[in-house]
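User: Predict the complex with zinc ion.
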Amino acid sequence: MPIKNPVVANDRTYPAPKTCAIAICLDGCEPEYLEVAIAEGLMPTLKRIRETGTDRLAHSVIPSFTNPNNMSIATGRPPAVHGICGNFLYEPETGQEVMMNDVRFLRAPTVFSKFYEAGARVAVVTAKDKLRALLGAGLKFDEDRAIAFSSERSGDTTKAEHGIDKASDWLGMPVPEVYSADLSEFVFAAGVKLLKEWKPDVMYLSTTDYIQHKFAPDEQGAKDFYAMFDRYLTELDAMGAAIVVTADHGMKPKHDANGDPAVIYVQDLFDDWLGKDAARVILPITDPYVVHHGALGSFATVYLPNGCVVSEIMDKLAKIDGILTVRDQHQAKREYDLPADRIGHIVIISDENMTLGTSADRHDLSGLKEPLRSHGGLTEQEVPFIVNRVIDLPNAPTLRNFDAFFYATTAAALEEVPA
Ligand SMILES: [Zn+2]
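Assistant: Here is the predicted structure with zinc ion placed in the model:
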């Protein structure tokens, strides 16, 4: 039974869907990937949807990383509200760097949990397990109304913890390698089967950007990925679901003419300026899966020692070639809607083709087989926002990727389904 009344989550009101409301987050989907794949005839369904539905660009949140944006989409609000502003967090009290994928760091309920509480059926499938606990926060699995699992750990899901036993057996697909396109394909295949057989009211499908880190839009690995996605999109669309296709962030080449990573090692700079380890540079892109980007992105935060003149340091940084902007804590909070207590004293954002590292000797770049592509900054903020219904939508920068469920449920609440 679909729910009857609108659902309020984090001060936004979501219409009650009449058909399944789906948001698909294509990890690292720079708009160019879709342009190239469509131009080559590889995405007939998305091409048609762009023509007959609603086609826009949206802005991601900053940092343009996976977890902050996935949690913004899941809560409908920016990091200042939900608290997740990176994969990694530095706790000055303990001097520890800790993974921010624990539910204790989440400061707002998800839209999914609010729909669940309202009596809806909710499904969440994500590629990497690092997001699963955060996305599944507040869901209960004892009434067969919630399912939340990752492809990565689909071999050992249980009814009690994920709402489904042995998801890989249920789907009839082997557990994919973590560094593969299959990890994302599993998400789409699970989405199709769930929609067909389990009939959720709200569903979130979130992929991994392994392919996008590896391949530029005109490379075969990227084209194959988007052609594969289009086949699953065709099935989801044919079943009458209202679908928003968006992304957590874009993806840009970050290498020099020789194909070597373009990096400013910020910890090394601070060690020169203030003495060894006086300042602490944090790269919130860092997580256990760094093979495809070597923990190099376009966003860094810095914890400065006492007595340091912040404005002088900022001026010095801003003069460095390749650094796009430097913001103090208050500016970053105000301009990027970040939680002030989790971003250190300053935030540094690099240029489109530059990344920020800590110290040269702390980055293992041996796993980088292709020229570096990465994200995290303002230049990866533009993402697709495509709806398979005609609805009234603003464009970027007003439209944000975290409006995905608002517009998916708005579209799902319409009576008319376009022919
Ligand atoms: Zn991502």
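Residues 220-238 form the longest helix (19 residues).
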